[in-house]
C-alpha cells in the first residue's frame, strides 16, 4: 500500500509540475543618465525588473521615473546655469553600447502612461 501511494504521489507531482504554465521572465527596463560633461555617456542609474507584473509594468515605471527626474533636474540645473543632464529608459538589461538622446521627456507630476496627474 505504501509503494502504491508513493508511486501515485510521484506521478501526481510530475504531472502537476509539467502542467503548470511556464513563468515568464520579467521584461527588464534600464534607466540611464548622460554625463554633465560628456553628453554621450550612458551611465546606469537603475534597473526595473519586477516579476509577476504585466509586460509593460517595468518600462512604464522606468519612463515615469525618467520624466520626473528630468523635470526636477532641468529646473534645478537651469537655475544654476549648469549644462543639461537627462534620463532615459531602454528595454532590457544595462548595455554599455548605444546612443544617448539629445532631448529628454520631462513632466511633473506624471503617471505611468505619461499623463499629467490631476
How would you characterize this protein structure?
The protein has 118 residues and is α+β, with helices and mostly antiparallel strands. The chain has one domain (25-118). Helix content is 35%, strand content 14%. It has two helices and three strands; from the N terminus they run H-E-E-H-E. The protein has helices at residues 2-19, 57-79, and strands spanning 29-33, 43-48, 87-91. The protein has a three-stranded antiparallel β-sheet, covered by helices on one side. The radius of gyration is 22 Å and the shape is flat. It starts with a helix and ends in a 27-residue tail after the last strand. Mean pLDDT is 77; it is low at 4-22.
Average pLDDT over all residues:
77
Helix content: 25-40%
Number of strands: 3
C-alpha Rg, in Å? Answer: 22 Å
How would you classify the helix and strand content by structural class? alpha+beta
Strand order of the largest sheet: 2-1-3
Weakly predicted, low-confidence segments:
4-22
Treating each run of at least 4 consecutive H or I residues as one helix, how many helices? Answer: 2
Distance between the termini: 67 Å
